[in-house]
TrEMBL record, chain A:
Annotated GO MF terms: holo-[acyl-carrier-protein] synthase activity; magnesium ion binding
Domain of life assignment: Archaea
Keywords recorded for this protein, A-Z: Fatty acid biosynthesis, Fatty acid metabolism, Lipid biosynthesis, Lipid metabolism, Magnesium, Metal-binding, Transferase
Gene3D superfamilies the UniProt entry points to: 4'-phosphopantetheinyl transferase domain
Protein name in UniProt: Holo-acyl-carrier-protein synthase
Lineage, highest ranks first: Archaea, Methanobacteriati, Methanobacteriota, Stenosarchaea group, Methanomicrobia
Domain 4'-phosphopantetheinyl transferase span(s) in chain numbering: 34-144
Species per Swiss-Prot/TrEMBL record: Methanoregula boonei (strain DSM 21154 / JCM 14090 / 6A8)
InterPro entries: 4-PPantetheinyl_Trfase_dom, 4-PPantetheinyl_Trfase_dom_sf, ACPS, Ppantetheine-prot_Trfase_dom
Secretion signal, residue range per the UniProt entry: none
GO annotation terms (biological process): fatty acid biosynthetic process
UniProtKB/TrEMBL annotation, chain B:
Pfam families with a match to the protein in the record: PP-binding
Occurrences of domain Carrier (ranges): 1-79
InterPro entries: ACP-like_sf (IPR036736), PP-bd_ACP (IPR009081)
Annotated Gene3D superfamilies: ACP-like
Organism of derivation: Methanoregula boonei (strain DSM 21154 / JCM 14090 / 6A8)
Name of the protein in question: Acyl carrier protein
Length: 151, 79
């Protein structure tokens, strides 16, 4: 009986220490993970030929992004999704306390399987693993981003 | 580079945000104006840059949090 109690106490102690270690690992891990999300109305990108919107696209989208989106029969959902993606990435980066980056420094292009791939053309972001998911319905475009800081 | 013109600033502001000129005051702020979100903010900046032939720094773009501040920042670029 005493042996069983001793073993029980040992296991409790072990579990307690394991829980503490796991908690510490998770806490450290969470400091290196950033998330961000954004949602945009597609209709706001339908007038992409208007002066204000065209100037905005020229300033905040890369040439490749503009060419990709404007090559589509309906560019607006693609423009809205990319803008949502940029917003989501900025939010995720901000949550990691990395100096703020701006829209034209972020490039979102699809790979051959249609997966959005992110390139950030600025310092402070070399060691970031960025995962981005884009989606849209008939009226809204949505983006969700997870960033892991590689240590 | 163009010169500082408060009427031109207000015209662009009203055109982009869709707000009547008589509703624009110096205290009209980004976080209290429903029409003024991040997309409109970037459109505003793009229009100011195009109209006045300037390039606005990122810190100034972020600092443009109300109409009065916009005028103050643009004044810095246009004088």
């Amino acid at each position: 009986m005493q042996i069983m109690q001793f073993m029980g106490a040992g296991i409790d102690n072990y579990l307690y220490r394991l829980q503490g270690a796991t908690g510490q690992i998770l806490e450290n891990l969470m400091q290196d993970i950033g998330i961000g999300t954004d949602i945009e109305e597609i209709r706001r990108f339908e007038n992409f030929r208007d002066r204000a919107v065209a100037a905005f696209l020229e300033k905040n989208f890369t040439r490749e992004e503009r060419e990709y989106c404007l090559s589509k029969d309906a560019p607006a959902p693609h423009l809205a999704a990319r803008f949502a993606g940029k917003e989501a990435i900025i939010k995720a980066i901000s949550s990691l306390n990395i100096p703020r980056i701006f829209y034209p420094d972020i490039e979102i292009l699809n790979n051959e399987r249609g997966v959005p791939c992110v390139r950030i053309n600025t310092e402070h972001c070399e060691k970031l693993c960025i995962k981005l998911s884009l989606s849209h319905s008939s009226g809204m475009a949505l983006a969700f981003c997870i960033i892991i800081r590689e240590v | 580079m163009a010169s500082f013109n408060e009427n031109a600033i207000k015209n662009i502001f009203c055109e982009v945000l869709g707000i009547p000129a008589d509703e624009v005051t110096d205290t009209l702020a980004y976080n209290s104006c429903a029409q003024w979100d991040s997309l409109k903010h970037l459109q505003l900046v793009a229009m100011f840059e195009e109209k006045f032939e300037i390039e606005i720094d990122m810190d100034d773009i972020i600092a443009m949090e109300n109409y009065g501040k916009i005028k103050e920042i643009l004044h810095k670029y246009l004088t």
